[in-house]
Design a protein that fits this description.
This protein folds into 2 domains: 8-209, Sandwich (Immunoglobulin-like), CATH 2.60.40.10; 277-341, no CATH class. Helices cover 28% and strands 27% of the residues. The chain is built from 7 helices and 17 strands. It has helices at 8-11, 28-36, 61-80, 83-107, 256-262, 293-310, 329-341; strands at residues 48-49, 56-59, 111-114, 120-121, 125-133, 140-147, 154-158, 163-171, 176-179, 183-187, 194-200, 205-209, 239-244, 268-272, 279-283, 313-318, 321-326. The strands form 5 sheets. It has a 5-stranded antiparallel beta sheet.
């Protein structure tokens, strides 16, 4: 039977936990049985403690096979009146029952709590941080956390009296608030013949911004801060400095020549200082009438990112919302949140 490797070598940079022979996720039959078990469909806030009321158990395929073998041994021992056969049969059955207790105890009394999730853009991977706390003196081995949409489950151990941070990755396909789905925490430790699991729906969500338009459309013409005439060009005549590339920077801002000269492995962006950079008014109504709602949001998202990267003051106007002209990280966040939640 394959179980998780433990000890100093396992904690000091060795590969992560390896699932046992019996996959804790179970198969289609397990999934149908799980769906029949009533549970909380609404997200649950606060700590979620695993007790005998919310930890369920069933034998795995290996467990069912072992039960068939034990039954065959019992029939054979009775038929041929084998005393040693009876002893061996009851010994194997007793070991299986003890394994059931250890499998349940490996999951029971854990406390689960939602962590945090940082905003992402549509099309990216959203990462949710969850916390598993072990208040007992027993170490928990080969725990498996899985949810619909995950590419692969997360396996981890929890030492006695400690907390373990688990990060699950889910694709963010649409803008707006994305709620983490119901999670299944399962284990087949120690023998792989029993599967214990619990369902948990944490109150944890992440804001998904609209996907920026690619390739980027040119920014609208700028108006001088004084309100008279236009600001000169794009403010790109004078390069004030070079800075590390930030996610969302326009490809036009990447200093390709500087990267080639320095043979740097990291991307570098240009910071412009064009004197009076002017002000931008990013308006929904100024976009072509042929563009759909999502396409407009995508272009406005790109413009907001480009304007912030260029250090330009800008305002945003979409149906039902107007954000006054400003600049900076807080202003960028307000604009992206307004675009992400528009129409919700």
């Amino acid at each position: 039977m394959n179980t998780v490797a433990h000890g100093p070598d396992a904690r000091a940079g060795a590969p992560g936990p390896v699932p046992s022979i019996a996959d804790p996720r179970g198969g289609p039959l397990y999934q149908r049985l799980i769906d029949l078990i009533p549970g909380r469909s609404r997200p649950r806030a606060g700590d979620y403690r695993l007790t005998r009321r919310n930890v369920f158990m069933l034998p795995t395929r290996a467990g069912l096979l072992l039960a068939a073998v034990v039954l065959t041994m019992l029939v054979t021992a009775v038929n041929y009146q084998l005393s040693l056969g009876h002893a061996l049969t009851f010994l194997v059955a007793a070991v299986a029952l003890v394994a059931m207790l250890h499998t349940w105890r490996n999951l029971a009394m854990l406390t689960l709590r939602a962590g945090r999730a940082d905003p992402v853009f549509a099309g990216q991977i959203a990462e949710f941080t969850l916390i598993a706390r072990n208040p007992t003196k027993l170490e928990r081995f080969a725990l498996c956390l899985n949810a619909a949409g995950m590419a692969q489950p997360e396996y981890f151990d929890v030492a006695p009296g400690t907390e373990h941070f688990v990060t699950i990755a889910l694709p963010a396909r649409r803008r707006g608030w994305m709620q983490v789905p119901r999670l299944t925490l399962a284990t087949t430790f120690p023998m792989g013949i029993w599967r214990a699991w619990a369902r948990w729906h944490p109150a944890l969500r992440v804001l998904v911004y609209p996907q920026p338009e690619t390739p980027a459309a040119p920014l609208p013409a700028r108006v001088a801060a004084s309100g008279e005439g236009s600001a000169r060009g794009q403010g790109s005549e004078d390069i004030a400095a070079l800075r590390p590339y930030a996610p969302g920077d326009s490809p036009r801002l990447v200093a390709w020549k500087a990267i080639a000269r320095t043979a740097s492995e990291n991307l570098i962006s240009k910071q412009f200082d064009g004197g009076d950079l002017g002000e931008l008014s990013l308006e929904w109504s100024a976009l072509p009438a042929s563009m759909g709602s999502e396409a407009r949001l995508s272009r406005l998202t790109r413009w907001v990112l480009d304007a912030d990267a260029a250090g330009v003051r800008y305002s945003l106007e979409i149906p039902g919302t107007r954000i006054a002209i400003d600049h900076g990280a807080a202003h960028l966040t307000r604009c992206l949140e307004a675009l992400a939640t528009w129409g919700a």
